[in-house]
Amino acid sequence: MIEKIEVNQILTGKGAYNSSPLSVSREGMILAFPAEDFPDVKFVWLDLTIKSEDRKIRALGEITGVSGTNGSRTMSVKFKHIFPKDKVVFEKSLH
Predict the structure, then answer these.
(1) pTM of the prediction?
(2) I want to staple 82 with a disulfide (CB 3.0 to 4.6 A). Which of 35, 37, 58, 59 is the partner?
């Protein structure tokens, strides 16, 4: 599943950050922590590309946890909203 989804950017009110997915499910994602200077925010927009469909979608996520140490930190994100048409494409990519 991970190879089917690309994280283009993580958008916060304070900037855009790059990351890569380590785990993906219907409920959310675990991402490689994007940057040392990532702001202390609760919600982020995730710009994703579904490679099998060559389609970009956007999901609103809630950061539910950050773990690890510098260089190997991860961020857990729970999906709060995916637009209905995007959700169909996203869920199809999970199979």
Answers:
(1) 0.86
(2) 59
